[in-house]
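Lab meeting, item 3. Inverse folding demo.
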């Protein structure tokens, strides 16, 4: 496990694998989808903005990756029916699912608890943990049928070190860790399926720009620095490792 931060995926490491990426329209989700496609994966792109999904789709096609699929889905609004429909679509069109990268991120804004509203907490909890849980549950029959399947959830370092003003967002991201531990424990009887929690730390992304507007890109790691870790934990190299909390870049 020691080399996961600098992992170099063998050529075609994801050939014949089908991977669903949420939050695939921008930032880490888009970069990961492109990297996975270059490594041979058939990527199902999911996100709420069709125009952004189309841009990622076009980048994958231009790079010569397997033809992706784009499925607009707003995790803040989608429910059981939409997740079930997605499962049926994947089964019909691809016949398998080998992994999920939960890169979608629900965030309102930084403020003291006294200014935060119930609806903001509920929306963030839904996007960051409740919807990913429900989506994974809906797709679990496909994952459990795969010879080697991985679910990777992107976290945030304030989930490990809660601080003032991060409020409902941090609480929702902290809940991810509990869900992942429970799922990993329950999936013991499915050794072919694993779930892990990857915390990027300070890294270039639209989210980081929003929370740290005065920071320059030179001060933090580039988006691409997370791609080796994503390929390791979604691919065959991480087989047998589940329920892990993985920190890529430690905060300064």
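The presenter then showed the designed sequence:
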């Amino acid at each position: 496990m020691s080399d996961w931060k600098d992992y170099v995926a063998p050529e075609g490491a994801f050939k014949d694998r089908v991977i669903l990426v949420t939050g695939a329209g921008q930032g880490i989700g888009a970069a990961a989808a492109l990297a996975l496609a270059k490594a041979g994966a058939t990527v199902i792109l999911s996100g709420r903005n069709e125009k952004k999904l189309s841009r990622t789709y076009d980048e994958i096609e231009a790079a010569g990756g397997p033809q992706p699929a784009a499925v607009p889905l707003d995790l803040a609004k989608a429910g059981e029916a939409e997740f079930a429909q997605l499962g049926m679509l994947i089964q019909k069109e691809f016949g398998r699912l080998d992994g999920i990268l939960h890169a979608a991120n629900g965030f309102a804004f930084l403020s003291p608890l006294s200014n935060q509203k119930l609806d903001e907490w509920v929306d963030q909890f839904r996007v960051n943990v409740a919807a990913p849980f429900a989506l994974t549950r809906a797709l679990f029959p496909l994952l459990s049928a795969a010879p080697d399947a991985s679910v990777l959830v992107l976290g945030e370092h304030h989930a490990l070190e809660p601080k003032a003003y991060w409020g409902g967002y941090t609480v929702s991201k902290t809940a991810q860790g509990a869900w992942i531990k429970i799922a990993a424990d329950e999936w013991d009887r499915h050794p072919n399926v694993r779930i892990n929690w990857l915390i990027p730390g300070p890294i270039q992304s639209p989210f980081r720009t929003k929370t740290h507007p005065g920071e320059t890109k030179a001060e933090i790691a580039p988006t691409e620095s997370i791609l080796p870790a994503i390929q390791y934990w979604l691919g065959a190299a991480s087989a047998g490792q589940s329920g892990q909390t993985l920190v890529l870049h430690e905060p300064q």
